[in-house]
Design goal:
The structure holds 2 protein chains of 2 kinds. By secondary structure, chain A is of the alpha+beta class. Chain A has 15 helices and 26 strands. Chain A has 3 domains: 126 residues, Up-down Bundle (de novo design (two linked rop proteins)); 157 residues, FAD/NAD(P)-binding domain; 165 residues, Polyamine Oxidase, Chain A, domain 2 (Alpha-Beta Complex), CATH 3.90.660.10. In chain A, the strands form 9 sheets. Chain A has a 5-stranded parallel β-sheet with strand order 14-2-1-18-26, covered by helices on one side. Chain A has a 4-stranded mixed β-sheet with strand order 10-9-21-22. Chain A has a 3-stranded antiparallel β-sheet with strand order 7-13-8. In chain A, helix 1 packs antiparallel against helix 2, helix 3 runs parallel beside helix 9 and helix 5 packs antiparallel against helix 6. Chain A is globular. Chain B is mostly helical. Chain B is 42% helix and 0% strand. Chain B contains 8 helices and no strands. In chain B, helix 5 crosses helix 8 and helix 6 crosses helix 8. Chain B starts with 33 loop residues before the first helix and ends in a 5-residue tail after the last helix. Classes of the chains: A alpha+beta, B mainly alpha. At the A-B interface, strand 5, strand 17 and helix 10 of A face helix 1 and helix 3 of B. The complex binds flavin-adenine dinucleotide (FAD).
Chain lengths: 526, 206
């Protein structure tokens, strides 16, 4: 199995013998299929004559992926999008844009400059999201690094240090110092399952000392890692005093520096230059007039050999027939659109819950954070706004757009507030991180995903809580991932993945559907 | 591409809610956003707990919009679904409400799908009291200000009865219509009784 041609032959044989599921499973194992492979490995056959008409419902990134791949393969694709813009939850707000929150429309009045934007939905691209990165490369989307962690950003919690903010680096240094001292005190090789030799023990203790910057007596007495009070270059640096762990302990956010920048949000992260929707613009540039805007789907009728879709455009109801249909309309909106789905398929769709994530942003009159040695990264606060993000782009320019809140939901805290209440909450909480905040920021934009038109949610939730995956849910999920009987309609998007709220998941779901459709079409062809 | 012309829209009356929007996007943003939640042509959408509006009596529709707008409905902090709708109506002008009532009135009545499973026979005897105001066929009666129940999304009827009973709807001193229902709903002793009566309503007007 050393070259891809023989792999593909093997895969075709496997697919023909055991069906697509085996193909996908095996495919991942051989790193040929969507979830682990790069997009290039998806090689779709040209359509069978007279069977090449495709309708894509929703211009989310999964829908655009399908339209682009099938266009390249020779299919005739049309994308129907309800909104006046493509991208769905990939949304960048800039000067002049209207935020289409139902009951709370807003117009963005920021300075019209390339770096003055806000990624209201997706904002970060992890290094391992190969398929998304593959499309960025293919579609000419320029990328730059995104900075998630800054040691000079702040952490604030009313329950800690009397509510005073502390630099992220100072906090983590002191927490690590305490933990290291504790490890060192507890360390006796006898207690371990596998006792270590003396030389090994010495190594381990050395590591513990490095981890926490302990002194020669294996005690933590403060560290230059936490920063200097003054000096350091032309004067002797005066190290900050250690902060006793007891003083930090009261905070809910102790573990932050060990969790926030690990795994998928660990370095290096990327962002497209000029806004996340540059990815979407890459697709829509390539697709041209195949994407039809302000065309909400109003009905879906499955037939034996295709799908009829009705939609509205300029107040007129129209209908189109196609051989294949790929649908990324959010499940909770799809349940309000007339359809003739089989009841088990509809039931699966109905079982997905929606989330309430919330973000907001201000235009900063001045990049005041740079005066405080902060260049990119996140400040954390134990308050509903949870985070403030400093833009890693536009460094040293006059102004910047600052993310003023990122609440993951699990409640309707901000969603329920009026615009004025949302703004006041952001200011009052932000002031705890930056005393001059209120004077420095202006022109708020708020995004309550639960109320955004044509979306009404931040991402599908299959389980009743995080990690609540049951056999019953598995059955519902499997049903929805499969096409409708006859193989003409696929439901796609991150809502049909095990890993919601990532563009990569939406793309992976699109690739899964494409591979399945391709296989079925090939089998029909023979 | 096969195109069938089915429906053509009435004149759009746009009432913009924020300054600057009038110039924005050739009248794309108006107050007719109801279908995102209430489904195509108001068929109702359980996915966002928004009931059927298609075929609703204009007088009842108008009063509910006014009562959401005034905050007499949908402001109790335990009224989860009502507080989804309340801010949607909060910003509507009288003109906008008139436009919406006319627009919603153009949607054809389609009874909602049946989802609640209960004992309709048991529900029938419970319904006797209700018929006085809501009609024997659940067709509603404007003279008593009581809306049609037949054909309404059954999961929604269930929530309303629970909300009246718990005091999440109909307890505002200004809500003289909703308050009539509080006593009625408290006669339904438990969830089973509510399911039964809703199952009976499901048999009406179909
Ligand atoms: C706050 C937030 C933060 C996120 N952060 C990240 C991140 O850092 N990195 C990352 O990779 N991902 C992130 N995501 C997730 C990412 O945005 C989504 O996973 C991805 O964009 C989903 O794409 P999708 O194809 O499933 O469709 P969606 O984006 O859900 O698109 C659905 C489309 O259907 C359209 N539609 C709705 N109704 C109709 C109708 N009746 N007719 C026609 N069209 C209709 C909608 O307008 C929309 O365009 C974030 C999401 C949110 C909300």
């Amino acid at each position: 199995m050393s070259n891809s041609v023989s792999r593909r032959e093997f895969m075709n044989l496997l697919g023909a013998t055991f069906g697509t599921n085996a193909l996908i499973q095996m495919g991942s194992a051989l790193s040929l299929m969507p979830t682990t492979a790069s997009a290039a490995s998806l090689s779709l056959a040209a359509p069978i004559a007279g069977k090449g008409k495709v309708l894509v419902l929703g211009a989310g990134i999964s829908g655009l992926t399908v339209a682009w791949e099938l266009t390249k393969a020779g299919y005739d694709c049309t994308v129907l999008e309800a909104s006046n813009r493509a991208g769905g939850r990939v949304m960048t707000v800039r000067s002049g844009d209207v935020v289409d929150e139902i009951g709370n429309n807003q117009v963005c009045e920021w300075d019209n400059e390339p770096h003055m934007y806000f990624n209201a939905g997706a904002a970060r691209i992890p290094s391992t999201h190969r398929n998304l990165l593959g499309y960025c490369k293919e579609l000419g989307v320029e990328l730059e690094m995104f900075i998630n962690e800054s040691k000079t950003a702040y952490v604030q919690d009313d329950a800690m240090l009397g509510g005073a903010r502390i630099r992220n680096g100072e906090m983590s240094t002191n927490v690590r110092g305490f933990l290291a001292e504790l490890f060192a005190k507890c360390y006796t090789s006898a207690q371990l399952d596998q006792p270590f030799s003396d030389t090994e023990s010495e190594k381990i203790l050395g590591l513990i000392s490095q981890f926490g910057d302990l002194n020669e007596n294996m005690l933590y007495k403060g560290s230059s890692r936490a920063g200097y009070v003054s000096g350091g270059f032309l004067d002797h640096g005066i190290q900050k005093d250690m902060v006793a762990f007891k003083k930090l302990m009261e905070s809910q956010m102790l573990g932050l520096s060990f969790t926030a920048n690990e795994g998928e949000t660990g370095p290096m992260l990327m962002q497209p230059v000029g806004g996340m929707d540059m990815v979407i613009k890459g697709f829509t540039r390539a697709l041209g007039d195949k994407v039809v805007y302000k065309a909400p789907v109003t009905g879906i009728t499955l037939k034996d050999d295709g799908v009829d879709v009705s939609f509205e455009r300029d107040g007129v109801r129209q209908s189109i027939s196609a051989d294949y249909c790929f649908n990324c309309i959010p499940s909770h909106l799809m349940t309000g659109i007339p359809n003739n789905y089989p009841s088990d398929y509809f039931e699966s769709m109905s079982s997905i819950k929606r989330g309430e994530a919330y973000k907001s942003a201000f235009q900063a009159k001045k990049r005041f954070w740079e005066d405080e040695d902060i260049y990119g990264g996140i400040s954390w606060i134990n308050a509903p706004i949870q985070q403030i993000w400093y833009p890693p782009h536009g460094i040293h320019k006059a102004k910047g757009v600052i993310l003023a809140a990122y609440n993951f939901g699990g409640g309707m805290h901000f969603t329920k507030m009026s615009q004025a209440q949302r703004v006041e909450a952001a200011l009052a909480q932000g002031e705890k991180l930056h005393p001059n905040y209120r004077e420095m920021v202006e022109k708020p934009i708020t995004i309550a995903w639960h109320r955004m038109n044509h979306m009404l949610g931040c991402s599908g939730r299959w389980g009743s809580g995080f990690g609540g995956w049951t056999d019953e849910i598995q059955t519902l999920f499997d049903r929805l991932q499969q096409p409708t009987p006859g193989g003409r309609h696929y439901f796609i998007g991150d809502q049909v993945s095990y890993h919601g709220a990532w563009q990569e998941s939406a793309i992976a779901s699109a690739h899964w559907a494409l591979a399945d459709m391709d296989l079925r079409a090939r089998n029909m062809g023979v | 591409m096969k195109i069938i012309l089915v429906w053509s829209a009435a004149v759009l009356i746009c009432a913009f809610s924020a300054k600057g929007l009038a110039q924005a996007e050739d009248q794309y943003y108006n107050d007719r956003y109801c279908t995102t939640c209430h489904g195509v042509d108001g068929i109702g959408n359980e996915g966002v707990s928004a009931p059927r509006l298609a075929g609703m009596e204009p007088w009842y529709l108008q009063r509910q919009l006014e009562s959401f707008r005034a905050g007499t409905r949908g402001t109790h902090k335990m009224d989860v679904q009502g507080s989804e709708m309340q801010p949607m109506a909060a910003k509507l002008s009288d003109d906008s409400i008139a436009d919406i009532v006319a627009w919603v009135g153009s949607w054809e009545y389609k009874p909602a799908q049946i989802t609640v499973k209960g004992d309709a026979e048991a529900g029938k005897s419970l319904y006797a009291t209700c018929a006085a105001c809501h009609g024997t066929q659940g067709e509603g009666n404007e003279a008593f200000a009581a809306p049609a129940l037949a054909g309404q999304s059954d999961w929604y009827l269930k929530t309303q009865l629970e909300n009246f009973k718990a005091g999440y709807r109909g307890r505002d001193p200004r809500d003289s219509f909703g308050s009539q229902m509080v006593a009625m709903a408290s006669m339904l002793k438990d969830e089973a009784a509510i399911k039964n009566i809703v199952s009976y309503i499901n048999t009406l007007g179909r």
